[in-house]
UniProtKB/TrEMBL annotation:
Protein name, entry field: Glutathione S-transferase
Domain named GST N-terminal: residues: 4-84
Cellular compartments per GO CC: cytoplasm
Any one GO MF annotation of this record: transferase activity
InterPro entries: Glutathione-S-Trfase_C_sf, Glutathione_S-Trfase, Glutathione_S-Trfase_N, GST_Omega/HSP26, Thioredoxin-like_sf
Species annotation: Mesorhizobium helmanticense
Lineage, highest ranks first: Bacteria, Pseudomonadati, Pseudomonadota, Alphaproteobacteria, Hyphomicrobiales
Keyword terms of this UniProt record: Transferase
Length: 219
């Protein structure tokens, strides 16, 4: 059995699954993935076998179960300090943790207004007023990270961190629904989408042949 098994849902729309998956792939942490198809009559029973919350992602590390996306990323950061999942500088690390946690608990109107769907043709979709405010907040956070701490590379804190992993599904939403993006936002979106890990995820999502999720079917 592999050291790590990551349980994930459909790549087309399981935004939470994407976060630890892309972090592990990008940072070259070897793992096996185990797929639990979402939105079927059997899903709840299948999830109950592997997940204490009935949700994915879940990481099984030699029998130790870690659930909740941010907890999985923190666990990996503890195990692999050399991968620098959090920035080394304490001030940058505080900001990275803050923006990652804000993502974990927030931006509901963006997530529901723009559900991740990697097979949807790209076309602008307006958000409601709360969604627009959250979109503006995300853009200002990305700018704060990039302008303050991103000089050493193309990611939020220069090199790839857990903060980039947490925002990766939002990046896909900006690409799918955001229309014409501000140049600096477009540049960050393109950097994330062009990583081999994200390309790999998209390629596998494109092979999924099940029906599309309806609106609000995931967050
Ligand atoms: N707070 C959880 C959210 C996980 C979550 O909502 N996962 C969705 C898939 S993206 C899920 O498992 N849904 C169960 C279902 O669709 O039956 C986390 O951070 O991991």
């Amino acid at each position: 059995m592999a050291e790590f098994t990551l349980f994930i849902g459909n790549k087309c729309f399981s935004s939470w699954s994407l976060r630890p998956w892309v972090a592990m792939k990008h940072l070259k942490i070897p793992f096996e993935e185990s797929f639990v198809r979402l939105r079927t009559p059997e899903t709840a029973a299948n999830l109950a076998k592997v997940s204490p919350t009935g949700l994915v992602p879940v990481l099984n590390h030699n029998g130790r179960i870690v659930w909740e996306t941010l907890a999985i990323l923190e666990y990996l950061a503890d195990l692999y300090p050399e991968k620098k999942l959090w920035p080394a500088d304490i001030e940058a690390r505080a900001l990275a943790r803050s923006v990652a946690t804000e993502m974990h608990s927030g931006f509901r109107e963006v997530r529901y207004g723009w559900p991740m769907n990697l097979r949807r043709p790209k076309a602008y979709k307006a958000l409601d007023a709360d969604g627009e405010a959250q979109r503006a907040r995300i853009e200002s956070l990305w700018r704060q990270c990039r302008e303050g701490y991103g000089k050493g590379g193309p990611f939020l804190f220069g090199h790839f961190t857990a903060a980039d992993a947490m925002y990766a599904p939002i990046v896909t939403r900006f690409d799918t629904y955001g229309g014409e993006l501000a140049p600096d936002i477009r540049a960050y979106v393109d950097v994330v989408l062009s990583t081999p890990a994200m390309r790999h995820w998209y390629a596998e999502a494109a092979k999924e042949t099940w029906p599309e999720p309806g609106p609000h079917e995931q967050d």
